[in-house]
TrEMBL record:
Name of the molecule in the record: CDP-glycerol glycerophosphotransferase
GO cellular component, one term: membrane
Lineage, uppermost ranks: Bacteria, Pseudomonadati, Pseudomonadota, Gammaproteobacteria, Oceanospirillales
Cited Pfam families: Glyphos_transf
Family matches, as InterPro entries: Glycerophosphate_synth (IPR007554), TagF_C (IPR043148), Teichoic_Acid_Biosynth (IPR051612)
């Protein structure tokens, strides 16, 4: 069997790699297609470190030409793809989303039909089937979490790698790029958390796109504090940070829900920087950007309406980490389905049964 992973963005890798590794156990080789951009050298190093067979393309047209030539059994995509009709002449396609957050785009990705879309949980599977009754959706769980669930990461070693104190509580701040809380944080906020390790894991766009250069300037300033580790482009995976952190601060990011899946306390920032065309009479644009279940998902965390509330909330959540345990466990099934460490295996089993 021949499998290809279309990797237009680096942050698709954490979702792809568990499936790639499961294929490798069976002696099945896979190829990663990377797109030329500003971080080519970094991606080449990551591909080398992970021992990934890879090729590089300029754009989706070039990628499609490669798929037509290779005639793989399966081509994986993390998002929609404009030349699916050509891909389907030679291969089957599989969609594997890279996040489980509350954005409406999770569902809009299925407007362009893949041969199969692997979905996290019965709730989302049934909802997608109702929206796209002619398509194939298979509930496999959330394979991105398999490495943590299977004990493949070591907390002590990771803290040492990041230069952080091993016996100090660790805060993970993982904001998304838009709408984001980054611009609403004080310039010297890490000083307010001097008794904690602070890991800042921004979205890939915040450190790679010119549109968010002001965010990057703030992030680089915060990185100067002794208790802070700022994730770099090389830190493409959120998983190590989910493993080492004791509490998460985030906004409308899928990181928030991934952390809650581990039954750890989450603080949701409601103070967001919205562009002018998302405010006032245009607030409907923000609501449209979010999933209809946004309100239900919000119950998975305690909420900070302004920055000043964070100091007390962090302390409270670390002292009482089980406060929202029942809600976290209930929503975990709705968000991600099975969390048993075998999601990747279920995907590979499907691939082999439906070549």
């Amino acid at each position: 069997m021949k499998v290809i992973f279309d990797t237009k963005s680096l942050y698709y890798l954490p979702q792809y790699l568990p499936v790639h590794n499961e294929l490798a156990k069976l002696g099945i080789k896979s190829t990663f297609v990377f797109y030329e951009g500003i971080h080519d050298d970094i991606i080449k190093k990551i591909a080398s470190d992970e021992n990934l067979a890879s090729i590089w393309v300029a754009d989706e047209e070039a990628a499609t030409v490669f798929y037509e030539k290779e005639r793989a059994d399966w081509v994986f995509f993390a998002n929609s793809f404009p030349y699916l009709d050509r891909v389907h002449q030679v291969s089957k396609s599989a969609q594997l989303g890279h996040g489980i957050g509350p954005k409406a785009s999770y569902y809009s990705k299925s407007r362009h039909s893949m041969s199969v879309r692997f979905v996290e949980g019965d709730y989302r599977t049934k909802r997608l089937e109702g929206m796209f009754p002619s398509d194939v959706f298979v509930d496999v769980g959330f394979c991105k979490m398999d490495p943590i669930l299977n004990g493949e990461l070591c907390k002590e070693a990771l803290l040492e790698q990041y230069g952080l104190e091993k016996n100090t509580p660790t805060i993970l701040y993982a904001p998304t790029f838009y709408p984001s809380s980054i611009e609403r944080f004080p310039k010297d906020w890490p000083a307010d958390f001097g008794g904690y390790n602070v890991i800042i894991k921004p979205h890939y766009f915040s450190i790679s796109k010119k549109l968010y250069r002001k965010q990057l300037a703030l992030l680089n300033h915060w990185a100067q504090f002794d208790n802070v580790y700022l994730a770099t482009t090389e830190d493409y995976s959120l998983l190590p940070f989910l493993e080492v952190a004791d509490v998460l601060i985030s906004d409308a990011s899928s990181a928030l829900f991934e952390f809650a899946l581990l039954n750890k306390p989450v603080i949701w920032c409601d103070f967001l920087k919205l562009r002018w065309n998302y405010r006032g009479i245009f607030s409907y644009k923000f609501k449209r950007r979010m999933d209809q279940d946004y309100g239900d998902y919000a119950n998975i965390a305690v909420h900070a309406t302004k920055y000043k509330e964070l100091i007390g909330l962090v302390k409270d959540q670390l002292q009482r980490p089980d406060d929202l345990e029942a809600i976290r466990l209930e929503l975990s099934e709705k968000l991600a389905g099975k969390l048993d460490g075998f999601s990747s295996k279920r995907i590979v089993d499907y691939l082999m049964e439906n070549v």
